[in-house]
Design a protein that fits this description.
single chain; about 170 residues; mainly alpha; two-stranded antiparallel sheet; 2 strands; about 65% helix; elongated
């Protein structure tokens, strides 16, 4: 059952604190996934690691850095000269926002990176990210654009209706 009444809004301080905890959580996810990947692939199985092992690590790091920096830029607070909080930044925990997609990319990359310690074929799961991006592009922009009706020619106004409208306008003046 949906809660009754108006949904409460978050204050600047609450958004700031939640953004800090969210960024801290995703930092731990990134470090944990990289630690597991490095420990298994680059330490335990160092003799069998190939150039692709290193390339996948670089790919994951690029995805992590890009996503995390975007999230931290969105969550950057504005602090006044006297130290008071003017703006807590964009809420990273807001549903249907860009931060939600960035968090999904970080989690997908971390899951794929850890699973790839079992088999390199798990990297193919990462193709879900561009597939989701194409889906969102289609649903929000391309689909409605292609399926929209072309503007039809304006219907010709009946002569009687046109004369009647002209008479009404003349009466007003």
């Amino acid at each position: 059952m949906a809660p009754k009444g108006k949904v409460g809004t978050k204050g600047k301080k609450q958004i700031f604190e939640e953004n800090e905890s969210t960024l801290k959580f995703y930092t731990r996810v990134i470090l944990g996934a990289n630690a597991i990947y490095a420990a298994i692939n680059l330490l335990v199985f160092y003799s069998s690691s190939t150039i692709s092992t290193w390339l996948w690590l670089v790919f994951a790091l690029v995805v992590y850095v890009g996503s995390y920096r975007s999230m931290s830029a969105m969550a950057k607070p504005v602090i006044a000269e006297d130290g008071s909080l003017l703006d807590g930044g964009i809420d990273l925990n807001m549903e249907q926002g860009m931060a939600e997609h960035l968090k999904d990319v970080i989690l997908l990359t971390a899951i794929v990176q850890v699973l790839s310690t079992i088999s390199s074929y798990f990297w193919y799961i990462w193709l879900l990210a561009p597939a989701r991006a194409l889906y969102l592009l289609w649903v929000t922009f391309l689909g409605p654009w292609f399926s929209s009706d072309s503007p039809s020619a304006p219907e010709e106004v009946n002569e009687k209706k046109q004369r009647r409208q002209e008479r009404r306008q003349m009466k007003r003046f």
